[in-house]
Amino acid sequence: MTTAEETRMSGLTAEGFAALQKFRAGEPAWLAESRKRAWDLYQKLPMPTRRDEEWRRVDLRALRLSDIAPFAESIGKVTSLSALTGPVKSRVDLGPHAAGTLIQHNSEDIYESLDEDLRKQGVVWCGFDRAAREHEDLVRKYYGSIRPATDGKFVALHYAFQSGGTFLYVPAGVHVDVPLRSLVFADAPGAGLFPHTLIILERDASLSYFEERTSERPASGAGRQNLVSSAAEIHMADGAQIRFMSLQDFDTETFNFTSEKTIGRERAQVAWLTAELGGRLNKGNIDCDLTGKGGRCELLGLYYINGRQQSDIVTLLTHKAPHTEGNILYKGVCDDYARSGFRGRIVVETAAAQTQSFLADHTMLLSDKARSDSVPTLEIEANDVICKHAATIGEISAEELFYLKSRGIPEVLARKMIVLGFYEEVLKGVPAAALQERVRRALQIKFELHQEDSPGE
Amino acid sequence: MATLEIEDLHVSVEGKEIIKGISLQVSKNEVHALMGPNGSGKSTLSFALAGHPKYTITSGKVLFKGEDLLAMPPDERARAGLFLAFQYPAAVPGVTVGNFLRTAVNAKRAGGKVLKAITGKDAEAAGKNGNQISAREFLKILKENMRTLSLKEDFAFRYLNDGFSGGEKKRVEILQMAVLKPELAILDETDSGLDIDAMKTVAEGVNRLVGPSMGALVITHYQRLLNYIRPQIVHVLMEGKLVTSGGPDFAQELEARGYDWIRQKFGIATPVAAA
Ligand SMILES: Nc1ncnc2c1ncn2[C@@H]1O[C@H](COP(=O)(O)OP(=O)(O)OP(=O)(O)O)[C@@H](O)[C@H]1O
Ligand SMILES: [Mg+2]
């Protein structure tokens, strides 16, 4: 048996970890050590249960870690996008125009491109595994520094089994205005994916970034579970700006755990949108620390789940310096038996005087079996701050629905317009029309597929 | 045969009878005014005709172009050519006036069949595909209509009634009527909240449409609107019944004398709230 086959045959177990270690032999020693430490930690940490506050709304009992392989092979490197076929190809075509594209198939990078001008200006953009070898100093300095393995059981699992992901370095003063695009596509049944995103923006650099994660598994894989445990770390020096948008659309046999964090220094500006549509379970942790004067952070999110999907999102925005501004806005829709939880937290530390920060989340329930609950928290330790929160749970307004129908619009179409309209406030927050449109399309497709599944009211 | 034929209509809301037997016929080329005190049931009648689920028809018959209107769901009534300009139009955040109206036009063209995709490339494809109107073609028509109603172009991209002033909402109702070209329009107090110039603009908008292809039932409290939109007949609704009617100048008399004399003449109790 080859080592690749061995890893594919094993689970997220001691045996699987040993197989992966063997398979990754030859990677830098510090990375191998970090892997080992994370694995030891993972074994020590207890599996979260519903008694843990942050996991109260999440059902992990069905998760069979020993059935999920730590690594899944790709189709191999391709040198041009035209070499792609099938579902990966169609996902690529759906995307916005990009200044650089990185494609990961299952656990491996298969394609990378970057605008020549950006390359000349010193932008580095490549698959994480290559970066660990070729940009070792930078990667080693930042890897695991703001999202350490100690952050939780599934974060530790991520660092133990990490493979794939992206590395992006933007030198001081360089602007990446046309988005760079990262696409992760999985089609192996029963696979674990552990991509790591590491982004470093030097002083006054700016970046527009679009990340899409999706899967389409063969029917023969039905009944197999999949797991994704990813981490993202974004470092922003003084005056850096980022527009980060991610779209997650995994199949409903995938347990998806994400753990992402940004640190923004003086005058850093963060506009971050996550759109979650897929997954059997989506458990997201999104944090931002504003550590320098005049920083701004906008954490926007939307999700649309149905069937028996579950979503549980925890966001934390910490103001550590004066004159910072923050805004968290999440909007979600649950249909059928879907359940969602949202826990938004804003912390204004003592040093962060003259700070403004807002937290809002709004949920729409489309069925009487759907559930949602929201826990907003504000912790204010500084004086002279403006900090507010709002949360609502509602359904489609009968008056809005009647109004649209009274103009000749059929009920299903009217409902779709109202639901998609519900997200607009969030989508408008990301100032990049092509990215907005991509997310709109994804929402629309999901809504339409669902309508076809359950015709009539 | 009149376009709209209402025969002994009874309507209840939450178990309480509000419309207590109304018969009325409105044809194309005609303008009927409907007046009456607050709470007499004018909006209830409008909602019942438009098919609002809260309003239950307990008895009576309504034919629209000879067909049983009450058997149709609300969207089908609209596509058949019935239009209601709401007294209090709902706001629909996130749905732009332009996208909404184009969807309505295309829904009518598709005969109520649900076609996929309302934004992006597919919407363009829809324009080339069959009789669906493309975004570009539609925007042209919309802008022309907005100009005649003195609505700024940016209204096409604003969310439907979201943050609109009272008068703007009313003008957008008439804009919808102008674009959808109904055969029978019910205008529920479209004049209230309009300044004098806006009232003229709106009245002109209505007058442009009333004719061989449209009739109108105009609900109002004031004779002023009826100076601009001349009705052939003015009906008075009280306590859920049409109690009397008069010619085009009857509105003037009502405005001068109020409704008490009608109550006395027809033996209708004075409502407590109005005493
Ligand atoms: N949805 C509803 N729920 C409860 N009561 C209603 C509802 N709609 C109408 N009514 C009641 O029916 C009666 C008639 O109301 P309607 O709105 O039809 O009056 P109107 O003639 O349009 O009055 P106005 O001139 O004030 O617009 C009122 O007593 C009102 O409270
Ligand atoms: Mg009324």
Secondary structure: helix percent of chain B: 25-40%
Query: Spatial order of the strands in the main sheet of chain A?
Result: 2-1-5-8-10-12-14-16-18-20
Q: Termini of chain A, distance in Å?
A: 54 Å
The biggest sheet of chain A amounts to:
10 strands, mixed
Question: How does the helix and strand content of chain A classify structurally?
Answer: alpha/beta
> Low-confidence spans of chain A: pLDDT under 50, at least 5 residues?
none
Biggest sheet details of chain B: 6 strands, mixed
| Number of H- or I-type helical stretches of chain A | 11
What's the Cα radius of gyration of chain A? 21 Å
Q: Whole-number average pLDDT of chain B?
A: 91
- Strand segment count of chain B: 12
Separation of termini of chain B? 42 Å
**H and E string of chain B:** EEEHEEHEEHHHEHEHEHEEHH
Question: Which strand order do you get reading across the main beta sheet of chain B?
Answer: 6-9-10-3-11-12
Strand share of the residues of chain B? 25-35%
Q: Roughly what fraction of the amino acids of chain A lie in strands? A: 35-45%
Largest interface: A-B, 32 and 37 residues
User: How many runs of DSSP E, i.e. beta strands of chain A?
Assistant: 20
The mean pLDDT of chain A is 94
Structural class of chain B: alpha/beta
What's the total helix number of chain B? 10
Question: In brief, what are we looking at here?
Answer:
The complex is a heterodimer of chains A (457) and B (275). By secondary structure, chain A is an alpha/beta fold. Chain A has helices at residues 3-9, 14-23, 29-44, 86-94, 116-120, 128-134, 136-142, 153-161, 398-405, 411-427, 433-453, and strands spanning 100-105, 108-114, 124-127, 165-170, 175-186, 192-193, 196-201, 206-215, 226-236, 241-249, 254-264, 269-276, 281-290, 296-305, 310-319, 325-334, 339-348, 356-365, 371-380, 386-394.
Keywords:
heterodimer; A: alpha/beta; ten-stranded mixed β-sheet; 11 helices; 25% helix; globular; B: 275 residues; alpha/beta; 37% helix; 26% strand; binds adenosine-5'-triphosphate; binds magnesium ion
